[in-house]
Amino acid sequence: MAKGTVVQKIIDEHFVYGDKEPGKPVAIKIDQTLTQDATGTMAYLELEAMKVPKVKTELSVSYVDHNMMQNGPENRNDHLYLQSVAAAKGVYFSPPGNGICHQVHLERFGVPGKTLLGSDSHTPTGGGIGMIAIGAGGLDVALAMAGEPFRLTYPKVIGVKLSGKLSPWCAAKDIILKLLDILSTKGNVGCIVEYFGDGVTTLSVPQRATVTNMGAELGVTTSVFPSDESTKAFLEAQNRGEQWVKMQADADAEYDQVIEIDLSTLQPLAACPSSPDNINSIKELGSADVAQVIIGSCTNSSFRDLALVATVLKGRKVNPKVTLAIAPSSRQVLEMLSRNGMLGDLIAAGARILETGCGPCIGQGQSPADDTVTLRTFNRNFAGRTGTRCDKAYLVSPETAVAAALTGKFTDPRELDIEYPNIEDVEKFLINDNFIIAPPEDGSNVEIVRKRTIGNPPENCELPDKVDGQVVIKVGDKITTDHIMPAGVHLKLRSNIPEYSKVVFECFTEEGKPSFAERASAVRDAGRHGIIVGRDSYGQGSSREHAAICPMFLGIKVVIAFAIERIHAANLINFGILPLIFADQADYDKVEQNDTIEIENARGQLSVGQPVKAQIIKPDGSKIEITLNHNMSQEDIDIVLAGGRLNCV
Ligand code: MIC
Ligand code: SF4
Question: Which residue in 108, 578, 589, 629 has its CB near the most CB atoms, within 10 A?
Fold first, then answer.
């Protein structure tokens, strides 16, 4: 078992109860929370439902960064609700235009050694500054704001030993792409990645944050860097030097597993369609045409990234066959670029400047044309996430992206006839906190603005004694929450569960056939229980609890798969859906869509570490006995029995 690691030090300091053994449940105190608008409305509605007058954390911040298209009144209705409920409950508010939650939190609020829980899966960005920063569903974040500890499995610590130094044109993005190549997106549940070794000191905080941000794609609980002199320099440059604390692993620290990466051997890499772990080197990808390049997202649009791109583009022109769009990650970044002239260089070179925010990363505009290649500096390329059904999205570093913007082809940036720009670490960032709104000391008289498009979280009933299930859908491996609950143009429905539920599993709807929502509602209305059958890594990706709430609303009671990803499994439990695992994977082949699955005495059968017996009933009446496992603790079981966490609190 690991010992003396940064991970253990921070967890020990925040330990509330549990078993400090890898794989066992523990609960930790949460110092800070963050929410974003697309998950935040539900989180605050849940907080209101818990009747919590004021948040009990050291700091909570509500960001608006995802849903900013404002096509129709829904988005703005959400923003007004979020701003007013933040003031009422003692939460800081970062309005639209201020930047992406993870970037702004790193700049203005993150503190080494603290714990941060965020209703967004890329909350681990905070690991770049030495925090234990974890993504979770909105309800878990609401509970943390209410002062409840956060439950997680005591982690195995994967130590990633970095040595050497990145060569010119190789980037922090290539480190995490390399690690995704090694570890893939599956099989890492319950682990935390900790970086150590001499190579760490060569990386600045924004570079480290790129690595911990995209570490979310590994399916680990989070990733963390030590807090050292670079961290101190970053905090000083953000005028927060006094918040620095040193966080280092002991000299004789031990990890559960060690992976070594020599930074000097890395080359420019890409995650190819349609998974962040489908890695190839740019060299191997040849010189196919690239039609679109987008530089942005919480992974790669820090000041350093955009300064690099601006320096490369200065005095040059984007290839006419390419559209280049740039979305700076924060107001700080945009304002600095505009004041130092780099914004002018980007515009003159032909870049289209987008609003600071998530934008195209979550399918809000800039969908690529059919059958064309798009290169993005983002962290996810799940099929269809761009808003184009059969998209060809590659994830690369800003270095590789700008090379393609110039040539119109996949280009190893080392082959550009350009000197690698030396971007110095910023000594003083431009600080302008005018747009971070502090809550009043006493928010009890603040009126909460709740327009007609803001619904309430739906209610669920207790788990029935007998699950009389029907398989509403059977899907394959690596089903992401983007498959389950598409975002993009539907994002504006996040506060309206009945409407949003209509597009659950939309990507699997065949023309002229009933949708998942129609089939599930028919099962529910017949007084039966819907079941989803998946395979490996079910529910990977985002923290969106809508991927549990909307199926719950449609009457889904059970999900059965080979493995269910951490945040999604927690969300299923929180909303009273039973997450079960095939004891014998061969049983997956025996079940088909529309089959009946019965679980007699479901309530009585649920017990820690004990399997659940069920039977598949085929249309001809034949029966197949199956055994299902689960990883639930007694607390989880109690929540599912009650029909979800809100029913318990
Ligand atoms: C994402 O990157 O998938 C999102 C959109 O930021 C999600 C949150 C959401 O669905 O609102 C995430 O990463 O958790
Ligand atoms: Fe926003 Fe994309 Fe980051 Fe998610 S991954 S928080 S959508 S920028």
Answer: 578
